[in-house]
Design brief:
With 330 residues, this protein is mainly alpha-helical. It is 46% helix and 1% strand. It has 14 helices and 2 strands; from the N terminus they run H-H-H-H-H-H-H-H-H-H-H-H-H-E-E-H. It has helices spanning 6-11, 15-25, 30-38, 44-50, 74-80, 87-96, 107-114, 131-144, 149-157, 178-195, 202-213, 244-258, 267-275, 306-322, and strands at residues 283-284, 304-305. The protein has a two-stranded antiparallel sheet with strand order 1-2. The longest helix is centred in the middle third of the chain and has 18 residues, at 178-195. It starts with 5 loop residues before the first helix and ends in an 8-residue tail after the last helix. The relative contact order is 0.10.
């Protein structure tokens, strides 16, 4: 792909991606990308997911797993992976794709009435004990207008001494997780953006960001070695998984919200993202989580991914736009 056609290649996408290309990469007028964003409800991937919603407001009949999922079949986990069709995963996807929440009017109330967590049959909008699940519930509830205010206090109470979070705190974990911390930060940032309440969660969000930044977004604090191969693996959809690209895109969003410049401690991670760019300006799909999906939304492993190319390009442009001359290589 020659450079002159990269924009055209990205624009030839589902509305769920195209509006982000128009806004973040091409900087087209608001009325242009907003019109494309509105099409998420009527065309392509978004419309297909909306058509799969159950009458009671759920998807696949369950909160985090499809109805009838066999938790006792260990072989199924190894063979098939996590299914990605249930309510929480579908709401995450529609929200991240920019669906107007008015399209799902009444869904919050229907889920409050009919949806319970597989963990202890807890009410849906109250969350459960998993940091990542509670973060997505916070973000989805804010988006749909549900009462999720109690989850903010839950996160403040469950932050670990090193500044982050770990979903395995229930099993005694005392050190934070990259995955759990990033997902929690996304929920707290959504809380600030939706409510305008910066004071309530600002200190906790800053502490979680410091947990990742002091590790350069991918290194062990103890040895300086990469925390795991998954941190350098770029696959879309991100779902729950951590990567330096996923983290850098969060820090881009947080900096825009805060009106701040990029933190220089991200430089090595940015260099890794840049190094993964192909000569034609694209990023390749690495493949990611196995499991049942409603339908595929990106290319197979090894092929150029429009989603990853959009994410990575906007991260690099944000970084480069804020670099000072002589600040060092990125």
């Amino acid at each position: 792909m020659v450079a002159g056609t990269l924009d055209d290649w990205l624009l030839d996408s589902d509305p769920a991606l195209r509006w982000q290309v128009e806004r973040d990469l091409l900087h087209l007028p608001t009325q242009v990308w907003a019109a494309t964003r509105a099409r998420v409800a009527t065309d392509g991937f978004g419309a297909r997911l909306l058509a799969l919603q159950d009458p009671d407001g759920q998807w696949a009949g369950g909160a985090f797993f499809p109805v009838g999922f066999d938790f006792d079949d260990a072989g199924a986990w190894e063979r098939d992976g996590q299914p990605w069709t249930a309510t929480t995963w579908t709401l995450n996807t529609l929200r991240e794709w920019g669906l107007d929440p008015d399209v799902l009017a009444g869904t919050a109330e229907r889920l409050a009435a009919h949806c319970r967590w597989e963990y202890d049959n807890l009410p849906y909008w109250g969350g459960e004990v998993d940091c990542c699940i509670n973060s997505w519930t916070l973000s989805n509830g804010l988006w749909l207008g549900a009462d999720v205010d109690g989850l903010v206090d839950w996160f403040l109470a469950h932050r670990l001494p090193d500044g982050g979070w770990n979903c395995e705190w229930v099993d005694g974990a005392t050190r934070s997780s990259f995955h759990s911390t990033l997902n929690t930060l996304k929920g707290l940032l959504d809380y600030e953006r939706v409510t305008g309440d910066r004071e309530r969660v600002r200190a906790a969000r800053r502490a979680g960001e410091e947990y990742l930044l002091t590790r350069g977004l991918y290194r062990r604090l103890s040895t300086g070695e990469p925390v795991g191969p998954w941190a350098l693996r770029f696959g879309y959809p991100f779902r729950w998984g951590y990567s330096v690209l996923n983290a850098a895109d969060y820090f881009r969003a947080a900096a825009i919200h805060d009106g701040s410049a990029p933190d220089e401690r991200m430089a090595d991670a940015i260099a890794l993202i840049r190094a993964a760019r192909q000569p034609d300006g694209t990023w390749l799909q690495a493949g990611w989580h196995r499991g049942q999906v409603w339908f595929e939304v990106d290319v197979p492993a090894g092929e150029p991914s429009k989603w990853l190319t959009c994410y990575a390009t906007r991260v690099l442009r944000w970084w480069d736009d804020h670099r000072r001359v002589g600040s060092g290589p990125a």
